[in-house]
Design a protein that fits this description.
The protein contains 9 helices and 8 strands. The protein is of the alpha/beta class. A 5-stranded parallel β-sheet has the order 2-6-1-7-8, with helices on both faces. Strands 3-4-5 form a 3-stranded antiparallel β-sheet. It binds 2'-deoxycytidine-5'-monophosphate (DC). 2'-deoxycytidine-5'-monophosphate binds next to α2, α4 and α8.
């Protein structure tokens, strides 16, 4: 099976680009952040204290997580409830960043991600795909953009959806998630040695997509 790994910090444009690349190549796009978000939501629903590693780990292991791919789109379920919309709040973002540092949470999801990559040709995005989940991926991309550009993109996305927000708050949130995701002991965000680094600050979606397809064609 073919594997393209895309890692990088929050807001670098990974999911938009990964979706496009997957569409062009007829691969399955796998959003691993959505899996961490869904387990974080299970903790919130069960009123688990996010600082309590044992309870978070037990809840994550017991959660009835299901992922379905319908027309190439990933849908997340907890039991019978589709939670694909509910996991896109700031509360869940923060909880996912906090709970994803626990090893037992990661172990469950990494196994699932590796199983999917055995079944399908995949474009998978996250933080540890090139380093831990798919170390033998055919192509690894480490996608970055300056913190200001990332905050502005997120601000535009939210205001476009009619969500009230402040650019300053978003900047603070991005800075704190960057710190959390790259300073944790377990699988911190970092570039794999053999990954291509792409700074997308001054590139548009088409340019980034074409660059990845070009790199893929070459390897
Ligand atoms: O990509 P995202 O913003 O949806 O991810 C939500 C959180 O999940 C993020 O703060 C870090 C964590 N995450 C992770 O630790 N490893 C991954 N492979 C994907 C996401």
């Amino acid at each position: 099976m073919k594997q393209i790994a895309i890692d990088g910090p929050a807001g670098a444009g990974k999911s938009t680009i990964a979706k496009r690349v997957a569409e062009k190549l007829q691969f399955v796009y796998i959003d691993t952040g959505a899996m961490y978000r869904t387990l974080a939501l299970a903790c919130i629903i069960n009123h688990v204290d996010i600082a309590d590693e044992i309870r978070v780990s037990e809840t994550a292991e017991a959660a009835d997580l299901d992922i379905r791919y319908i027309d190439g789109v990933q849908h997340m379920f907890l039991g019978d409830e589709e939670v694909s919309g509910r996991i896109r709040t700031e509360e869940v973002s923060k909880a996912a960043s906090d709970t994803s540092k626990y090893q037992r949470v990661r172990t469950r999801l990494v196994a699932l991600q590796q199983e999917l990559a055995e079944k399908y040709n995949v474009v998978m995005d996250g933080r540890d795909i090139g380093t831990v989940v798919l170390p033998g991926a055919d192509l690894k991309i480490f996608m970055t953009a300056s913190a200001d550009v990332r905050a502005e993109r997120r601000f535009k996305e939210y205001t476009g959806k009619g969500i009230l927000c402040s650019l300053e708050e978003i900047k603070k949130d991005i800075a704190s998630r960057d710190y959390n995701d790259s300073h944790r002991a377990n699988s911190p965000l970092k570039k794999a040695e053999d990954a291509f680094e792409l700074d997308t600050s001054f590139m548009d979606i088409e340019e980034v997509t074409d660059r990845i397809l070009e790199l893929y064609g070459k390897c």
